[in-house]
Structures are given as C-alpha cells and as structure tokens.
Specification:
The chain is mainly α and 92 residues long. The protein has a domain at 2-51. The chain has helices at 2-5, 12-24, 53-62, 70-80, 83-87; strands at 29-32, 41-44. A two-stranded antiparallel ribbon has the order 1-2. It starts with a helix and ends in a 5-residue tail after the last helix.
C-alpha cells in the first residue's frame, strides 16, 4: 500500500502536511487504515468530523462511484466461490 500512496506524497510526513493543507482550504480527505489491520477507510470533513454513511452515499453519487458494504462483498464471495475458482486462485 505504501507504494500506492506515493502519488499523495513521497513519505508519511509529506502526506500528512499535504492533508493538513487540503483540510485548511475546505477539502475533505480519505483516511485509510493500515492494510495489516481492517484496511478500511473513512471520509474526514474539513471540520474534523467523520462522514456518516448517508454522507458517503452522497459523495459516491456525486463522483459516480459505487458504494457497498464489506458484508455485501463477503456474502457475494461466499455465494459465488466454488472449489474450482479457489484452486485456480481467481478469487483471493
């Protein structure tokens, strides 16, 4: 994940400083958890509050993004995973 984040800054210090600048001009930011943990994300508003689900849905619609729960993905994978797919490493 660290390599993916480099587009937002060369290192953690630079990314935090850039994030502060974005918040100061009224932009929100996406906070993501370490991939060794939950690997989840939250939208943080410029006033320091964290977006609720309804706000995330509005954001997704505004930016033409899909929004779904981890639970939905898990249920889908459980329903559609067969022994053959697992053996072929198509789904991980």
């Amino acid at each position: 994940m660290e390599n993916m984040l480099k587009i937002f800054g060369a290192d953690s210090k630079e990314r935090v400083e850039s994030t502060i600048e974005e918040l100061q001009v009224g932009k929100g930011v996406l906070l993501i958890d370490n991939e060794d943990r939950e690997n989840g994300g939250e939208l943080m508003n410029d006033n320091g509050t964290i977006s609720r689900f309804s706000q995330i849905v509005v954001f997704a619609l505004k930016h033409d993004l899909m929004a779904l729960s981890i639970e939905a993905i898990t249920q889908y994978r459980q329903m559609h995973t067969s022994d053959n797919l697992l053996k072929e490493n198509i789904l991980q």
